[in-house]
Amino acid sequence: MNFEGLDPGLAEYAPAMHSALDPVLDAHLNPSLLQNVELDPEGVALEALPVQESVHIMEGVYSELHSVVAEVGVPVTVSHFDLHEEMLWVGSHGGHATSFFGPTLERYSSFQVNSSDEIRQIQSLENGILFLTKNNLKYMARGGLIIFDYLLDESEDMQSLLLTDSSMLLVGGLQNHILEIDLNTVQETQKYAVETPGVAIMRQTNRFFFCGHTSGKISLRDLRTFKVEHEFDAFSGSLSDFDVHGNLLASCGFSSRLTGLACDRFLKVYDLRMMRAITPLQVHVDPAFLRFIPTYTSRLAIISQSGQCQFCEPTGLANPADIFHVNPVGPLLMTFDVSASKQALAFGDSEGCVHLWTDSPEPSFNPYSRETEFALPCLVDSLPPLDWSQDLLPLSLIPVPLTTDTLLSDWPAANSAPAPRLYLTFGPKVGRAPPVDAEILRTMKKVGFIGYAPNPRTRLRNQIPYRLKESDSEFDSFSKVTESPIGREEEPHLHMVSKKYRKVTIKYSKLGLEDFDFKHYNKTLFAGLEPHIPNAYCNCMIQVLYFLEPVRCLIQNHLCQKEFCLACELGFLFHMLDLSRGDPCQGSNFLRAFRTIPEASALGLILADSDEASGKGNLARLIQRWNRFILTQLHQDMQELEVPQAYRGAASSSFCSSGDSVIGQLFSCEMENCSLCRCGSETVRASSTLLFTLSYPEGSNSDKTGKNCDFAQVLKRSICLEQNTQAWCDNCEKYQPTIQTRNIRHLPDILVINCEVNSLKEADFWRMQADVAFKMAIKKHSGEISKNTELALADWKELGSPEGMLRCPSIEELKNVWLPFSIRMKLTKNKGLDVCNWTDGDEMQWGPARAEEEHGVYVYDLMATVVHILDSRTGGSLVAHIKVGETYHQRKEGVTHQQWYLFNDFLIEPIDKHEAVQFDMNWKVPAILYYTKRNLNSKYNLNIKNPIEASVLMAEASLARKQRKTHTTFIPLMLNEMPQVGDLVGLDAEFVTLNEEEAELRSDGTKSTIKPSQMSVARITCVRGQGPNEGIPFIDDYISTQEQVVDYLTQYSGIKPGDLDAKISSKHLTTLKSTYLKLRFLIDIGVKFVGHGLQKDFRVINLMVPKDQVLDTVYLFHMPRKRMISLRFLAWYFLDLKIQGETHDSIEDARTALQLYQKYLELSKNGTEPESFHKVLKGLYEKGRKMDWKVPEPEGQTSPKNAAVFSSVLAL
C-alpha cells in the first residue's frame, strides 16, 4: 500500500513508541484479544482473562470470527494469507513477523525480521516466506530460520515485490528502477528503468505487469521486455491501492485540492479490452484499500482507514446497505488482505491487533493446503529432576530410546589408538611420513623452533618418487596415470583406460573457443567433431559414414526440397569435413534436423540435456538404434527421385536406379524368409535389410570349457537365422508353431553389424572367445612372437603396406582379439551361405584375385568399429576406429596409403590396426562393425557434382503471411549481377539463444563455463560490394525456427518476439536450408566475404569457409596481443559514423564493414605500406584507451539507417 496522503497521525509512530508500555491493559482494548500474549508478571495473569465466546457466523455474509494481538501497541504494517498452508502472516512497524494457524488464529511462530525498519510486504513460497523491508530482502523458513538475507543499496526505498514465477522476483520502490532477482542464485539479474518517483504497488496478469506510481499513474508493461505498453492517469494526487481481475482494473487514491490531498470517493475503473476508462464508481466510504473478491460475481471490497467496508459491483452502483464496520482497537486500519479461497478477510490496525472476518463458521484459507508441520511436544518437563550430587543415583532413570545400533560413544579401540600423521604417496596408498635425511639433521641450525639446513642435493628439486602398484605391470601397454580426477578415486578400472580413449571436453574461457588448442588433440588434417551440442553422441557414426567413399559422394550429390532432410544436412556436413584442414566442425544443423524427425523421438534417440550429462541412457544400445535409424532414413530420403522444384539446381543423382536408392544398393541385403508349418505348408516372402544383429549361441556363458567358436560361425548364424515361433498358417487358419528360416539372395556391398553386447552374458562370450583365440595364436606362433611391444620407426612407416602386415605380431597385439580383419562369404547354388575368417596367409595361398574368379564369392575387409568406453559415473563415451582409405589421404596429405585412426570427437590419432579389434570387456565394448567388399570404390562413380546452382539466389516467396512489398529491405540479384570469383560481399548475421550458458563459480570467485549457450541464426544479410548498386543488400532473410527461443537478444540482434513466427511476422521469412544454400553457392563460386567477427557468424551458421575468402575487419584493424575493437568504435573513428544506437541492424553492420574494408585499402595502399598503417593502428589504440573504447553519445544520429535502404529499394 502507498501511505502517502494517509492520516498524518501515522507519522507519530517511532521505534521507541512502545518502549515503556504500562502492563495495565488499555481501557479500550478487549482483554480477550490478548490470547497467547505474555504480559509483565506483575500485570494481569493470562489465566484471569475471560475466554471469548463463540461467534455466530451467517453463511455467505462476512462477519468477525476472531481477533488477536500480534504485538501490543505496535502497528501492523502488512498482512498476508499463506498460499501453501492454513496460516496468516503479519508484519509490524518494529520489523517483527508473527504467524497464526487456522481460523482460530493460534500463534504458530514469531521472530524478528529487521531490527529497525518496518516490514512492507510479505510473500509466501513453498519452502519459506519472503519479507521486504526498506532496503533488505529476507527469505526465512516458517519457523524463523534464515535461508538467505539479501541486502540492497542503502539509498533504496523499496515498497513492493512481485513473484513473476517460482524463481524470479521483481522488487520496486521510490527510485527510478525495478530490480529482477533470481531466487535460486540470490543475484540481481536485471535492472529495469521506470519513471520517477518510482513504483509503490505491483500486480500481474497473463497479459501485463501493472505498476502503480505514487504520482497517481498506473502503467501496463510487457511481460518479456518490461516496456510500457499503456498508461492510465488515474488520480491527480496520489495512488492508494488498485486491483485487477479479468478485463477490469479498479483503483482508489487521492486528488489534489486547494487545501492539499483529499481522499477521492470515486473509484477509477478501466476496461483492459479497450484500454479506456469506464464510468467511475462512487462509494460511500473513504477508500484506502480495495480488492476484487470474485466468488459469485466480480465483487469489490472497499475499505477505509476508519474501519468501514463496502461491497459493490465495479460496473454497478454502490448501496449504502452493503457497508459493515470493523472495530479496530486503534484509531486506524493499516493493512488488508484476502485469502486465496476468498472465504477470509484479514485486517490489521495501528494498535497491533489482527481481525479475521469470514463468511462461514469453518473457513479455509486455501482451496488445497498442505499439512502444517508443528514442533514436537517437549518431554523434559514431565521427567523427574535428577540430583547429580548423589553417587548412588541410578542412571536408568534417564530415558534412552531402545535401539539395536551401536551407540556413537561406543568407539572401537582401533579408532581410539594414537597414530602418526599419514601422507599420500600414490593413489589410495598411505603410510608414515618419510624420515628426514640424516645429512639435513646433521647440518641443521635452529632459530627458535625453526630449523635451517643446506640442500644436500640427494634428489631432484620438487620431485618425489612414486611407488607404483605391483599389479599395474599387467597393463603396461596403456598409460596408467590419469590426467583428470577420473580414475584416481571413483573408478579404479579407468587406470587401464588409455588417455586417448577417455571422454574429451572443451575448456571454455572468456574468449570462448578461440584460445582452446584443438591441435593438441588432432595433429592430422582430418576434421574432428565438437561434442557440446545436444545429441552429439552420434559423432563417431557420422565419421564412419563420411569415410565410406561411395556414401560421401552420393550424399553430397543429393539435394531435395524438404526443409528437414537428413541426407541434405549430412551432405552439407560432409562438405565441411572435406574443406577442413584439421579444424573441428560441428553438426549443429544436422542434429537440428535430426531432432525434428518424429521417428527419432519415438525410438528414444533424442536425449534430454540432463540425461546426456548424467549418462542415464545406455550409449551402446542408443548408437545401435541410431545406426539402424540413419540407414533407413537415408534410404527413404534417397528414394525420392523427382527433380525438386524449389531448388532448380538439384537433379536426380547419377547413382540412383529406377527401383532403389544408392543406400539400398550399398547396404541392402536381399533375403527370402521361409515359414514352415508343422502341417507341411511353406510360405516364402522376399524382403531386404540394411544391417544384421549378432545372435549368440544359447548357453554360451554356461560353457566354461573354452569351446572355440570363431566370428564367422556366429555371423553366419545371425545372417541365416533359424528360429521356432508362433505364426499364422493360411492352411490351418490359425496360429501354429512354425520354423522360420532366412536365405540370402544377394549380399550387400557394405556389411553392417550391430554387436548387441548389452549384458554380462554377451560380454562373457566375447571375453571367453578372445581367450581361446589368444591361446590358439600362442600355439600357432610359438617361438616367433616378438616380446617387444614397442614399434620401431620403420614398422610405423610400413603400417598399411603388404610388407608391414606380414611382420610377426607381439603378445600384446594378440590379447583380447576375436574379430577378424577380413571375412570370406560365398553364396551356394542351393541358396546357402558359407562364411569363414580370411587371413593374410589365406590370401598368400589363394592369391589376391582368387575370390573374384569364382562367381558368388566375396571378401569383406573390416573398415570401422564403434566401441563403448565404459564409465559408470557419466555413462561412458563412444569412439570409432576407422581405416581411412587412400583417396582421403590423397586429398588431405597428398600421399597414397591406408591407415587406422581413432576418432574420439575432436581427438584424432593414428593407431596400430590391431588396436581396432582389441576389446577388453572391462572398459572397451564393441557396438557396431562395418565391413566393405574388396575394391568397393571401383564399382561406383565417385565424382561429386555440386547440385547447387545460381537459381537459389533468385527471388523467392516469404513464409510470413503478413509481409508486404513495402516492407522489403533487399533487392535480389539480377542475371547480370551474378557474383564472380573474387567479388566482395558484405555479410552480417544476428542470432537468438536456444539454451542458456551453463557455468559454475570456482572457489576463487572466477567463472568456469561448463557448457556454452546454444545459439541459432535468426537473420542473415548479404550486401553488394561493387557495381552500381554497391551497399544495397541482395539477401536479408529472417530464419524461421521451430525450436523454443529463450532469449531474442533484442538489444544486440534487433530481433523481436514474433519476427520469426510465420503467422505474425512482417519480415522476409525463409527456412534455414534455403538461406544456407545461398551462402553455399557464394562460397563455392569463390566470392570474398567482408564482415566484422565473421568467425563466430560462420560457426553458428555451420559453414566452413576457406580462409582466403574471408576479410574480417576484426583482424584487419588489430594489433598483436591487443584487444579486439568493436565495429561501432571503428565506424566512429575511421568513418565518422555512429551506428548501433539502440539495437544492432545487420544491413547497417554489413555495409559499415564494407566501408571499413575500403578504408583499410586506402590507408594501407592496398597492403603495400604496412609501416604507415601500423602507425594508424597505434593512433587508434591510443584514442581507444583515452575514450575507454566508448563512442561519445550522438547529438544527432548520423549513421546510415534502413531508411536509406528502403528508399533505394523503392527507387529500383
Features of the shown structure:
1212 residues; alpha+beta; Nucleotidyltransferase, domain 5; 26 helices; 55 strands
Structure characterization notes:
- The chain is α+β, with helices and mostly antiparallel strands and 1212 residues long.
- Among the domains are: 671-696 and 719-747, no CATH class; 950-1002 and 1017-1187, Ribonuclease H-like superfamily/Ribonuclease H (Nucleotidyltransferase, domain 5), CATH 3.30.420.
- The chain contains 26 helices and 55 strands.
- α4 (549-556) crosses α5 (566-579) and α23 packs across α24 (1146-1163).
- Residues 3-54, 424-430, 468-493, 641-659, 786-806 and 1196-1212 have low confidence and may be disordered.
Number of helices: 26
CATH superfamily of the domain at 950-1002 and 1017-1187: Ribonuclease H-like superfamily/Ribonuclease H
Task: Please name the CATH architecture of the domain at 950-1002 and 1017-1187.
Answer: 2-Layer Sandwich
In total, the number of strands is 55
Low-confidence stretches: 3-54, 424-430, 468-493, 641-659, 786-806, 1196-1212
What value does the average pLDDT take? 81
The class by helix and strand makeup works out as: alpha+beta
CATH topology of the domain at 950-1002 and 1017-1187: Nucleotidyltransferase, domain 5
| CA radius of gyration | 40 Å
Oligomer state of the chains in this structure: single chain
Supply the CATH class of the domain at 950-1002 and 1017-1187. Answer: Alpha Beta
Distance from first to last alpha carbon: 60 Å
Could you describe the largest sheet, including whether it forms a barrel? 9 strands, mixed
State the helical fraction.
10-25%
Give the overall shape.
globular
Strand content: 25-35%
